[in-house]
């Protein structure tokens, strides 16, 4: 796939198989905003005339004007930089890549895109982090208008109020020393200990039961330590976070692809029908949203989805290899992924295949191995599918009728209140026990507001979030138990499967897909 196709809006949308006729026509030949188009035309005649000026704001070096414009993803004068955009200003991240406290892998997510939302949602003290930007080189005359703009969490009054209270009441200043990224060490030992014990049992006697027990371990890894590690929230040490994140690869996923489709797409644009890959990645088999086209069989999806969920892990396998070859996962292009990160995917897949298939087949024969592997795959897939899906697919988070959530999602992605969006499009269930076993994913609202905080702090944070929402009359969705929200999820899937398709009011915003 060539570079143009990788970044085309058609590829971005049809990868989820959800393009409508109107949208497909608007995306077939994506057009930049007016300023971007003028810049691109001017670049044709000046590309070889001058190089862009890099300004070090720390010393306030004078900027020499150069002809602006060009394609920042293809023109050589821009591609030689590890550029990102923050609040309308383009920076070169190159001198900071190996000095970022959170590690290079997280910073790589910002390369080649407007990273405002990533930046502001990941730092509990944004004023401190923003001061670091002032030390980075600014790319003068960079075609910022050509880069799809990002939401701006710091413009959310709700988010700012919650974050300030979390700093004062939960961490009381200790976040300066990284307290918000610690506290889950005990959970990590429990998860890894269980997984290791079940693998020993699996290799001792590979069969569907031991495979299923190991599958629970694989699911527990996926819900907890890999999730928290890839968010940079398991430790203040990026090496520890990376190692925890790589357990995703051992369990059958890909930490690299997860970081891009989960953090760049889902977390920033939760329940956006165009930009959140979780909304459309299962289509056309499953219709998670009434803004997607309706097929006759969707009315039965609440029944047949249980026959599809066991194969989730196999879908991951196919998708990860495809993404490696195309440089794009569902919802995001891998602009900043390093060669080493790509190599971890290959090494991780080979290790997973050896541990799940190769060694048991050698010890017990192919028949025993196949039975055990089936137990693993089906159990892990069902647990992950059920626990992931309930968080954003209930009437409160995707209402079929008008209300505050629908109104929020009908706004432009860059103008809607980001903090309010995270609250309205997520639902919680359970409490401390659920938090331990799901890595905080049961407290999905708090996780979406603070993805870089260790999940062990979410129960305390949830009290603050609920209180701030109550003061403002913002709905805060919480179910008492997993069976309760799971039952409501099943009913919602029946309702949305039968609901007529609703028109989308933001067709013009599909242009954003051309560069995501």
Structure write-up:
Residues 83-148 form the Cytochrome b5 heme-binding domain. Residues 1-47 form a transit peptide. A motif (Histidine box-2) lies at residues 262-267. Belongs to the fatty acid desaturase type 1 family. The chain is mainly alpha-helical and 516 residues long. The chain has two domains: 74-149, Flavocytochrome B2, Chain A, domain 1; 152-515, no CATH class. The chain has helices at 3-6, 9-14, 21-27, 34-46, 76-79, 104-108, 116-122, 126-133, 157-171, 185-204, 208-223, 225-230, 238-251, 255-267, 277-280, 301-308, 312-326, 339-364, 366-389, 404-410, 418-424, 432-438, 444-449, 458-472, 482-498, and strands at 54-56, 83-86, 89-92, 137-139, 328-329, 332-333, 428-429, 478-479. The strands form four sheets. Strands 1-4 form a two-stranded antiparallel ribbon. The protein has a two-stranded antiparallel ribbon with strand order 2-3. α11 (208-223) packs parallel to α19. The two termini are 16 Å apart.
């Amino acid at each position: 796939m060539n570079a143009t196709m990788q970044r085309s809006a058609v590829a971005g949308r049809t990868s989820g198989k959800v393009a409508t006729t109107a949208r497909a026509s608007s995306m077939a030949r994506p057009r930049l905003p007016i300023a971007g188009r003028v810049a691109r035309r001017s670049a044709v005649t000046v590309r070889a005339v001058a190089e862009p000026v890099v300004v070090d704001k720390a010393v306030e070096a004078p900027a020499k004007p150069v002809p602006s414009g060009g394609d920042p993803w293809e023109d050589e004068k821009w591609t030689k930089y590890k550029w990102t955009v923050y609040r309308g200003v383009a920076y070169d991240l190159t001198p900071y890549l190996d000095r970022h406290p959170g590690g290079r892998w997280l910073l790589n997510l910002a390369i080649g895109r407007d990273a405002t939302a990533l930046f502001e949602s990941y730092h509990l003290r944004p004023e401190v982090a923003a001061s670091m930007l002032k030390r980075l080189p600014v790319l003068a005359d960079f075609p910022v208008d050509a880069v799809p703009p990002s939401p701006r969490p710091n413009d959310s009054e709700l988010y700012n109020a919650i974050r300030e209270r979390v700093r004062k009441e939960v961490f009381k200043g200790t976040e300066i020393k990284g307290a918000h990224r610690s506290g889950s060490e005990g959970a990590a030992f429990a998860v890894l200990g269980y997984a290791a014990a079940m693998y020993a049992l699996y290799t001792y006697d590979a069969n569907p039961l031991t495979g299923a027990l190991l599958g629970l371990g694989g699911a527990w890894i996926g819900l907890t330590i890999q999730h928290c590690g890839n968010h940079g929230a398991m430790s203040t040490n990026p090496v520890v976070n990376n190692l925890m994140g790589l357990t995703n690869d051992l369990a059958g996923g890909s930490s690299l692809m997860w970081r891009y489709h989960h953090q760049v797409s889902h977390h920033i644009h939760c329940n956006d029908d165009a930009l959140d890959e979780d909304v459309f990645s299962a289509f056309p088999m499953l219709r998670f949203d009434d803004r997607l086209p309706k097929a006759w069989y969707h009315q039965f999806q609440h029944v047949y989805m249980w026959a599809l969920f066991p194969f989730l892990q196999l879908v991951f396998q196919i998708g990860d290899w495809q993404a490696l070859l195309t440089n794009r996962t569902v919802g995001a292009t891998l602009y900043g992924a390093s060669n080493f990160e790509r190599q971890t995917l290959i090494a991780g897949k080979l290790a997973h295949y050896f541990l799940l298939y190769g060694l048991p087949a050698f010890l017990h024969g192919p028949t025993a191995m196949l039975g055990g592997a089936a137990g693993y795959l089906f159990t892990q897939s069902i647990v992950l599918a059920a626990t992931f899906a309930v968080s954003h697919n209930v009437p409160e988070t995707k209402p079929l009728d008008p209300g505050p959530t629908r109104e929020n999602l009908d706004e432009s992605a860059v103008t809607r209140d980001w903090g309010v969006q995270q609250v309205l499009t997520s639902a919680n269930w359970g409490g401390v026990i659920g938090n331990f076993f799901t890595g905080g994913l049961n407290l999905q609202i708090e996780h979406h507001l603070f993805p870089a905080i260790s999940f062990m702090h979410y129960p305390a944070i949830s009290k603050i979030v609920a209180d701030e929402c109550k003061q403002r009359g913002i709905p805060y969705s919480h179910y008492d138990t997993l069976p309760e929200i799971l039952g409501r999820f099943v009913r919602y899937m029946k309702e949305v499967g039968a609901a007529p398709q609703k028109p989308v009011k933001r067709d013009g915003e599909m242009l954003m897909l051309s560069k995501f």
